[in-house]
Amino acid sequence: MSIARRHTSQTGSAIIFVLWMSVLLAVILAGVMAMTQTELRLGNGRRSLLSEREAMLSALDLVAYDTALVGRSYIASLPRSVTVDGQRVRVGLAPSQSRLDINMANDEAWIALFTRLGESETAARRLADQILDWRDNDEMARQYGAERADYPAGSLKAPQNRPFITVAELVQVLDMTPQRLACAAPYITVFGGTPAGEVDLAGSDVAGSMDGVRVAFQAELVQPDGGAGRLAALALFGANRARPFDWVAFPVREFDPGGCGAAVPAGGEPA
C-alpha cells in the first residue's frame, strides 16, 4: 500500500512538473513570437522607408536623364510627375536652384546682393572681397578684402582658402556679423544650380547644351494622406553620353539662422 501511495505521489509530481514546463515553454514561445513580430514590423518599416527613398532616387534619375537628352528647355517644363513601382513622385526644382551659390558667386553678384539688403556700396564691396579671399587658395588680399594677416590675433575668424562647406561658415568672414548672415541666408546656398541667365547661354542650339550646368532638383513622394516625403539633389551635367550627369550633393536642409531682425545699422556699416 505504501508503494502504491509513493507511485501515485511521484506520478502527481511528474504531472505538475510537466504542466509547469508547458506553461514556461508557452511563455517563452509567446515572448519569441512577440520579438519576431516586432522585428518584422521594424523590418517592414525600414523596407518602406528604403523603398520610398529608392523611388525618389529613381524619379530623380529619370528626370535628370530627360533633362540631359532634351536640354535646358526641359528645365522650364518642371515639375514633372513620375510613377515608380506604383508610387507617384513629383520632381521639380529645389529652392536652392534660384539662390546664390556662395562658392560660385563672383564679386558683382555679392555686391548686388548686399546692396539689395541695404548695405552701402562700400560695405558691400568690402564684404564681397573678404568672402572671395576667404575661399580662394592664396594669401593675397583683394583691394577691399582680408587674408589671415588682416584678422585679429587669436580671433576665431580666419580665412580657410577653400570652398565653403556650409552657409553658416560665412560668419567666419571678417566683417560678416550674425545679423548680416541672417539677412543674407534666405538668398544663398552651397547647393546652388547654374543661374537662369547662364543656363540660357549654356548652348548655341535651340535645345541648349547642358554641359557644365548644375541643376538642383527636388523629389516629393506624393502619399495618400496628403503628406510628401522630400529628397533634394544637385546634379552636374557633362558631355559624357554614357553618364551625362553626376549627383554631386544630397543636401539635408538649408541653413536657418532665424529672423533677419533689424541689427544692420543704416548705411550698412558694422555695429
TrEMBL record:
Keywords: Cell inner membrane, Cell membrane, Membrane, Protein transport, Transmembrane, Transmembrane helix, Transport. Pfam families: T2SSK_1st. InterPro entries: GspK (IPR005628), GspK_central_sf (IPR038072), T2SSK_SAM-like_1st (IPR049031). Signal peptide: none annotated. Its main location: membrane. It comes from the Bacteria. The keyword Cell inner membrane applies. The keyword Protein transport applies. GO terms for biological process: protein secretion. One of its GO terms (cellular component) is plasma membrane. SUPFAM superfamilies: GspK insert domain-like. The chain crosses the membrane at residues 12-35. It is found in: Cell inner membrane. Residues 103-191 form the T2SS protein K first SAM-like domain. Belongs to the GSP K family. This is General secretion pathway protein K. It comes from Maricaulis salignorans.
